[in-house]
Amino acid sequence: MSADRARRAERVIELRQRAVDAAQTEHAAAARVVLEAEMVSRDAESLYLRESAAVESDRYASSADLATSSAWLKTLRQRADQAAVKLAEARAESARTHQALVGARSELRRMEIWRDGLVAAARAVLERKQRTAEDEVATRTVRRHA
After folding, report:
1. First-to-last CA distance in the chain?
2. Alpha helices for the chain (secondary structure H)
3. Going by CATH, does the domain composed of 3-145 fall within 1.20.120?
4. For residues 32 and 34, what is the distance between their CA atoms, to the nearest angstrom?
5. HSE of 73 in the Cβ direction (CA atoms, 13 Å)?
6. Predicted local distance difference test score (pLDDT) of residue 61
7. In the chain, domain spans
8. In b/e form, how buried is each residue of 67-106, taking b as 16+ CB within 10 angstroms?
9. Are 80 and 44 in contact (CB under 8 A)?
């Protein structure tokens, strides 16, 4: 294998490794966003459940109190629903980045196999040349002594 071909193979592998590193970084960031979205969603849902349980046990002095309480619960439900939507989006993004990471890793592995094949082929050619040279030396030696 020529030195130029070896350098090209190493360069391609280096670029693929950088792509894997970038994909890992992106996936880690997406996983962090999922964790944060899970916390926000869990907190919003628990706040809604706590407040709705408190409202059911309260007695209202007027219809205005009931309307205010109802509006507050509606707002909390909307927040919980929005947090759930953001969580689903974050999970979808995390899945996308995971697939990109898997793709980048498989591409890196494919390039490593390609390089290893080049090295093995070059080694086989070199060994064949050495055997041929050794055979020629042995043949000359036998002819001289015969």
Report:
1. 38
2. 3-57, 63-145
3. no
4. 5
5. 14
6. 66
7. 3-145
8. eebeeeeeebeebbeebbebbeebbebbeebeebbeebbe
9. yes
HSE toward the beta carbon, residue 76, CA cutoff 13 A: 19
The pLDDT tens digits along the chain (146 residues) read: 577 888 898 999 999 999 999 999 999 999 999 999 999 999 999 999 998 887 766 666 677 877 888 899 999 999 999 999 999 999 999 999 999 999 999 999 999 999 998 888 888 888 899 999 888 888 888 888 76
Residue 97 CA, distance from chain mean position: 5
The reported pLDDT for the residue numbered 142 is: 80
| Chain position carrying tokens 């899970």 | 38
Q: How many CA atoms lie within 13 A of 40 on its CB side?
A: 17
